[in-house]
Amino acid sequence: MKIAVLGLGNFGMNVARELYVFGHDVLAVDERDALVQKCQEFSSRSVVADCTEREVLENLGLSTVETAVVSMGNNLSGSILATMHLNELGVKHIIVKAIDDDHKKILEKVGATQVMFPEREMALKLARSITTPNVLDYLPLTNTFSIMEVIPPKDFVGKSLSDLDLRKKYQIQVIGIQDTVEDVISMVVSPSQPIKATDRLIILGKQAHLQEMKGLSGP
Q1: Are strands 145-150 and 135-140 parallel, antiparallel or unpaired?
Q2: CB-based contacts of 92-100 (< 8 A; 24+ apart in sequence)
Q3: pLDDT tens digit string along 123-176?
Q4: Are 119 and 94 in contact (CB under 8 A)?
Q5: Which string of DSSP letters, residue by residue, matches the chain?
Q6: pLDDT recorded at residue 10
Q7: Of 72, 154, 160, 218, which has the highest C-beta tally within 10 A?
Q8: Are both 17 and 97 inside the same structural domain?
Q9: Same-domain status, 26 and 106
Q10: pLDDT tens per residue across span 90-110
Q11: Residue 109: what pLDDT?
C-alpha cells in the first residue's frame, strides 16, 4: 500500500518506520531537513517540503496515495490545511493527530476520516493496565460495544466455555482464543475446549458487561 506520512516528529517518525517495516511504500514529508534525512533509511522516499501547500502535495503525487497520516505537532493551522488539501486531492483515508477536541472537530469538517489523540490513548491504556492487569487490550467499537483481550481468571482455567456459560452469566461472547504457547489464534472456538492458563480470551460485549469481567482477578 502507498502511504504518505506528513510531519516527522516523534509520532510521525515512528509511524513511518513501522509502516515501512511492514512492507508499505512510504512517502515521508517534512519541512525540516534533518528529520527528512533521518527518515531516509526507513521510507521509500523522503522529501523536504511544505505540507501546507496544495500544489506541493499535488506535485509529490499525493493524489495517488491511498492513505495519509498527518502529524504536525502543535501546528494546528498546518494540519488543517494539509488535511483539506489531501481531501481535495482525493486521498480516501486521512488519519490526523489532533491536539484537542476543538481541533478534532475542525479536522473532521475539512476531510479527516480518522482523528487520533496518541498521548491521551496511551494514557488511558496505561491507566487500564494498572487498574486491571488481567486486561491486555481494549478496543471500543461503538458507544455501546467493545472487544477486550484478557488473561483468563483463575476460576476459568480447566473449564470449557460451555461450563462457564459466559453469555448467560455476563452477557458477553468469546469470539476467539489465543494460545500463547503455540502462538495461534482460534476464531472458531469449540464450546467443549478447556481453557488453559496460557490462553488469552478475546471477548465481545457491551461495555457495561465487560466492566464486570474487568473486575475478575487474573490467574
Answers
A1: antiparallel
A2: 92/66, 92/67, 93/66, 93/67, 93/68, 94/67, 94/68, 94/70, 95/67, 95/68, 95/69, 95/70, 96/69, 96/70, 96/71, 97/7, 97/11, 97/12, 97/69, 97/70, 97/71, 97/72, 99/74
A3: 766 776 665 556 666 666 776 788 888 888 888 999 999 998 888 888 888 888
A4: no
A5: -EEEEE--SHHHHHHHHHHHHTT-EEEEEES-HHHHHHHGGGSSEEEE--TT-HHHHHHTTGGG-SEEEE--TT-HHHHHHHHHHHHHTT-SEEEEE-SSHHHHHHHHHTT-SEEE-HHHHHHHHHHHHHH-TTEEEEEE-SSSEEEEEEPPPTTTTT-BHHHH-HHHHHSEEEEEEEETTTTEEESS--TTPBPPTTEEEEEEEEHHHHHHHHTS---
A6: 92
A7: 72
A8: yes
A9: yes
A10: 999 999 999 999 999 999 999
A11: 96
Q: Are 50 and 135 part of one and the same domain?
A: no
CATH, residue 101:
3.40.50.720
**Domain co-membership, 19 together with 75:** yes
Based on its alpha-carbon atoms, the radius of gyration of the chain, rounded to whole angstroms, reads 22
Residue type at 130? I
The answer on 101 and 193 residing in a single domain is no
